[in-house]
Specification:
The strands form 2 sheets. A 3-stranded antiparallel β-sheet has the order 1-2-3, with no helix packed on it. The radius of gyration is 17 Å and the shape is globular. It has about 140 residues and is of the alpha+beta class. It contains 3 helices and 6 strands, in the order E-E-E-H-E-E-H-H-E. Helix content is about 30%, strand content about 25%. Strand 4 and strand 5 form a beta hairpin.
């Protein structure tokens, strides 16, 4: 499958989970810290799972807006939210794996219409497409 790339960005990390990362254009920079649950000191700083959760949540709202713009589904209210919960841990096959849960709130949208919109967005969202058949992604309308 090929992709007609319309936008690219690049980021560089140093120091791994206890370092820093940022985009090469300087628009984004973050201090990194390993959570205690993964053997780190915790403390100030973000971790890759938090960054992934933030990106996936924002992208999924964009995917819902795209689907709604194509017609045939509910509109996305201005106060819509997506809470992405990302878990990490050892896999039974070795190495580490991720799991994701997306909790979508669409105030004022009938449940059946909200579920249809979420399902269609999951088909077009680039994060969903990147994770499909790789990690477990659970969707819920809250």
């Amino acid at each position: 499958m090929s992709v007609n790339v319309l936008y690219k960005t690049a980021a560089r990390a140093t120091g791994g989970r206890d370092g820093q990362s940022g985009t090469l254009d300087g628009n984004f920079s973050v201090k990194l810290a390993t959570p205690k649950e993964l053997g780190g000191a915790g403390g100030e700083g973000s971790n890759p799972e938090q960054l992934f959760a933030s990106g996936y949540a924002a992208c999924f709202i964009g995917a819902m807006k795209f689907v709604a713009s194509q017609g045939g589904t509910a509109k996305v209210p201005a106060d819509a939210t997506v809470t992405a919960t990302v878990g990490i841990g050892p896999r039974s096959e070795g190495g580490f794996g991720l799991e994701v849960a997306l909790a979508v709130s669409l105030p004022g949208v009938e449940r059946a219409a909200a579920e249809e919109l979420v399902a269609k967005a999951h088909e077009v969202c680039p994060y969903s497409n990147a994770t499909r058949n790789n990690i477990d992604v659970k969707l819920s309308v809250v």
